[in-house]
Amino acid sequence: MISLPPILSIPIICNSGLQSPVSRHFGKSPLHALVDPASGKVIAWVEKPAAKDSCAPIDDLAKAGVTDVACVGLGKGALARMQNANISVHHTTGKTVAEVISQWKQGSCPEINPEQLCAGHDHDHDHAPH
């Protein structure tokens, strides 16, 4: 069996290169920066298809070979779907893609815990409510 290299997904608000601002809510992020964790380089920018109803493009990320996600927050449903897709979810406090990559390389992105999950859609994130 061939082992593919890991790919880290970082949900972002807009593409500003390494200075792209990290979205505070995974499911409402319009874009994802896909990063090679070994080199710290962005290998792709993935846009969430406009027609998607889902809060989170987890199937698309899994098809792209994503093995890990580093995000600020997400809901229980998204976490469960990522776990079912064998995608590990990690917490970050980074505000830009560059900061998240730095935290990742330092081992400062622990697996997300229940206290970091969004309880509902009445939270104060960088998106409009559903």
Give a brief description.
The chain is of the alpha/beta class and 130 residues long. The chain has 3 helices and 7 strands, in the order E-E-E-H-E-E-H-E-H-E.
Structure description:
- It contains three helices and seven strands, in the order E-E-E-H-E-E-H-E-H-E.
- It is α/β, with parallel strands linked by helices.
- It has one domain: Nucleotidyltransferase, domain 5.
- The longest helix is centred in the middle third of the chain and has 9 residues.
- The C terminus is likely disordered.
In quaternary terms, these chains amount to single chain
Name of the CATH homologous superfamily: Dinitrogenase iron-molybdenum cofactor biosynthesis domain
Low-confidence stretches: 121-130
Give the fraction of residues assigned to helices: 10-25%
Strand content is 15-25%
Q: Could you give the topology of this structure?
A:
Blueprint: E1 8-12, E2 31-36, E3 41-47, H1 58-63, E4 68-71, E5 74-75, H2 76-84, E6 88-91, H3 97-105, E7 117-118
Parallel strand pairs: 1-4, 4-6, 5-7
Antiparallel strand pairs: 1-2, 2-3
Features:
single chain, 130 residues, alpha/beta, Nucleotidyltransferase, domain 5, five-stranded mixed β-sheet, two-stranded parallel ribbon, disordered C terminus
